[in-house]
Design goal:
There is one protein chain. This protein is mainly beta. The protein is built from 3 helices and 25 strands. It has helices spanning 253-256, 379-383, 471-475; strands spanning 57-58, 64-70, 86-93, 98-104, 130-137, 143-153, 156-161, 167-171, 189-192, 212-217, 223-228, 237-241, 263-269, 292-298, 324-329, 333-338, 355-363, 368-376, 397-402, 408-412, 419-423, 429-435, 442-447, 453-458, 463-468. A 9-stranded antiparallel sheet has the order 10-11-12-13-14-18-17-16-15, with no helix packed on it. The longest helix is centred in the last third of the chain and has 5 residues, at 379-383. The radius of gyration is 20 Å and the shape is globular. The two termini are 30 Å apart.
Length: 476
Amino acid sequence: MSLDRRAVLRGAAVGGVGFAAVGAVPSLAEASPGERRGPFPQHKPFPPLMDDPKGVLALPPGFRYTVVTRAGETKLKTGQVTPGLHDGTAVFDDGRDYLLIQNHEVGANDPLGVPPVKGTVYDAGVGSAGGCTVISVDRTGKNRGEWVGISGTLTNCAGGPTPWGTWMTCEETENKANGTTRLKDHGYVFEVWGDGRTAHPVPLKALGRYAHEALAIDQDRQHIYLSEDASGPNGLFYRWSAPRGYRLSSKSWKDLADVGFGTLEAMAILGDDGKPIPDVAYLTSAQLLRPFRVAWVKVPDRDAVSVSVRKQVTDAQVTRGKKFEGVYGTRDGVYVVNSYAEAGTTDLPADAVPHDGMVWFYNYEAKTIQLVTYFPSNDAADLGPEARYVDYNFDSPDNVTVTPWGSLVLAEDGNASSHVLSSTPGGPTYAIARNMLNDSEFTGPTFSDDGKVLFVNIQTPGLTLAITGPWRDYLG
């Protein structure tokens, strides 16, 4: 995300339909709001974006936005200002209002860090730093109050909602304790409750210590899928598996705090010869929708005591990828995003193909993975002036969410203009919002369960936006 940028009280419930064939991405039946279904919906194109007279957000006709929070200006209930660098976000419904749990991708001792609040602090050494805030929002997008959910963590990037209505927040760092500004190791996942309570807070060491990006829990509550945004070498896509007969629940943080609980493995995409393809960038749009078999390789030391997790396995064992980013689960599988791979860098194998974004779907039952969206590399638009047809040129998808009707919403973290995108797996992608304020990335797109509001952030200067409009007309 911004660290590597180029020059659900009910919200976790997901749905789906059956398989057309083994290894195929499932088709879509009619979905009602609140049911996150599998891929391949059909919806009509969004109309062209209309510029915003206020210079904040270009939207299609009939849509409007409300600013929910603004870093440094809106206030927490404790009186401090809203922290900055808004990132991964989940929305839950408490029966009256929406509750947003929002990450802040902030480093140590930052003026716009999450203030340490008693009972929420993991590491007192980092001061005002990363963490999560919780925002109560009424049905019109009005902010009813904001408070701290967790503090004392670092560079909280994305994460994922749990089936029991909490948020798992991910630290995108591998920093270890240094005895002064860091009293504890970092690079963990933490669980956050919407009412501001945390599990003490406790690092979920069973999920590994590395530069976490996002995660999703499968429908059976036996696996957690996690992405890693790292380079030198590129990061990995992981699966944590529970011990036989165990199902994840609201009390699982006690077990996940044990570094040896369950099994952590890294993904290998297998080629026709049965051997791992060493990097996702060897695959292109020519393989769109083709299912590839997947194997999982056990991580030797998930707490990375002396060697980073991704360096404990070789290219001959696993499949790496530049910027494994957003993750989101459905009943049938899980989506994961690779943001880009740039030519002429050490993060792209010399004989692989540069790209401006890949979205994958891992099928739980078939144990296969498919490339469902592909943005080809476009240096002229990425590195030169703003593209002539700015709302047709997309690059660097980052966070991903599944809409109540089964399609995807992607947030761009690229060059030139940043967009929020509506994407049909295996089909077209449309711009549904454009940042007119600056070139900052969008983060944390998340739909309310009733399908009425899309919440999204502009990371800098730090805005949370509630977008309303005829979503069902275009996505339903």
